[in-house]
Known about the structure:
Elements (H helix, E strand, L loop, with lengths): L6 H28 L6 H4 L18 H25 L6 H23 L8
Amino acid sequence: MNSNSYLFSVIFVCGALVFALVPLAWAWVWRRFFQPPKPGAEKNAIYECGVESIGEAHIQFRSQYYLYAIIFLIFDVEAIFLVPFAVAFTGLPIGAFIAILIFLFLLVEGLVWAWSKGCLEWER
């Protein structure tokens, strides 16, 4: 081994540091020279669609909404798996057909489970 065996590693590490630090330095210089010195009251004002907000910004949602969202995502993602199958339906072997039937069975089973637990009932 020669004395320059670590030269490539040192150059690589220096290049990685330069690659990371140069954009940060450039952003700091840009902010230093082009940022307004003090934002005014109009810039710091809280607004939503041009109307002043009333009340508290943090609202507690019922956990039922999150459950609906999760169930929606599960049954929405299944469409991503079913579309390619539907497009290539005629050219697939019988094993793929059985696999998609098992997939659909599991989805229906999940729907029946969610329905039996009352997850899909809207409580007032």
